[in-house]
Amino acid sequence: MRQPHLSDVVLFAAVVEAGGFRVAAQKRGMSASSLSDCIRRLEADLGVRLLNRTTRSVTPTEAGARLLQRLRPALEEIDAAFNDLDDNTQRPVGTLRLNVPVPTARFVLPGLIPAFLERYPGVNVEVAMDNTHIDIIAAGYDAGVRYEESLAKDMIAVPIGPRRQRFVAAASARYLEKNGVPQHPRDLLAHRLIGHRFESGKLGVWEFENNGDIVRIPPQGPLLTSSQDLEVGAALGGAGIIYTFEEYLRPLLEEGKLLPVLEDWWQAFEGPYLYYHDRRHVPSPLRAFVDFLKDEAA
After folding, report:
1. pLDDT at 26
2. Domains in the chain, CATH or no CATH each
3. pLDDT tens, residue by residue, 49-103
4. 239-264: buried (b, 16+ CB within 10 Å) or exposed (e) per residue?
């Protein structure tokens, strides 16, 4: 067996992918006869027939299909290497489209986007706030931000923002003076709770943890809303106990406008991830943002 030309191997994969010589030749900017000659040379070098040719179709033989299955990862790596080389010779330009949940837009991106735009002046960023789990590819986004339990298996995930976050419970001094201070999460069943309903219609369940003991409380109370601002305002007005991201309430807790409730039971969880589809060529604005996040985390 003679050592085959790499270009012939690439053309063989192109013919199989296109399903025929004519389409593959057009994509490669060459004649179908020249392409056919390259495949014959590859078959001669390997000493095996790789394609079944008929007047209507071109399909790989069993040996051809087996060879292509083994070669495809290597060919994709070669293609990615050339794309990386091209990306590194040019400054990233274009638009980065992100789909992120509201907490990320409010508390994570403001600390990242200005520095990113300064480093890459050729990149524009579009951010859509969305708490639902949409198909970012179908919706035309380059990447999204979600928490680990919501990530699809075929996505590449990169940490973004603080790695430790917490859900916290709090209430105004006026409410606690009037209704008492809960000592255990189950005490909340006798309290006025301010609940959150997601855009999907799902009710946000309150979850507490202490030394491995986990308690989940479905909020029952006078107010159920999808507006985080309304929840905070209602808690400040003494309407009940609120349960939300610590970032929303930290200034109010520090100023004493709200008081912590069941602080020993506040549950910590891992921060969000930027995620994008596992594809061979990543657009330069997205690649730049991923590199930027990795630099920030270093």
Report:
1. 84
2. 6-88 (1.10.10.10), 94-161+271-297 (3.40.190.10), 164-269 (3.40.190.290)
3. 999 988 778 899 999 899 999 988 888 888 777 766 655 556 888 899 999 988 8
4. bbbbbbbbbbbeebbeeeebbebbee
Contact by Cβ (8 Å): 210, 264: yes
pLDDT band at 239 (very low <50, low <70, confident <90, very high): very high
Distant-in-sequence, close-in-space partners of 153: CB < 8 Å, separation ≥ 6: none
Angle value at C-alpha 114, between 108 and 117, nearest 5 degrees: 120
Amino acid present at 58:
V
Residue % of the chain over a pLDDT of 70: 95
Report field, pTM of the whole predicted structure over 0.70: no
In whole angstroms, what is the distance from residue 38 CA to residue 32 CA? 10
- What are 237's two structure tokens? 């007005």
DSSP-derived 3-state class of residue 269: strand
Q: Where are the beta strands (DSSP E) in 7-151?
A: 51-53, 58-60, 94-100, 123-129, 143-146
β-strand partners of 273? 146, 159
Beta bridge partners of 217: 206
* Statement: residue 279 has pLDDT above 90: no
Give the helix/strand (H/E) hosting 267.
strand 267-270
In 176-236, at which residue ranges do the beta strands (DSSP E only) sit? 193-196, 206-210, 213-217, 223-225
Q: How many helices (H) and strands (E) does the chain have?
A: 10, 15
Q: Which two tokens stand for residue 200?
A: 């999907």
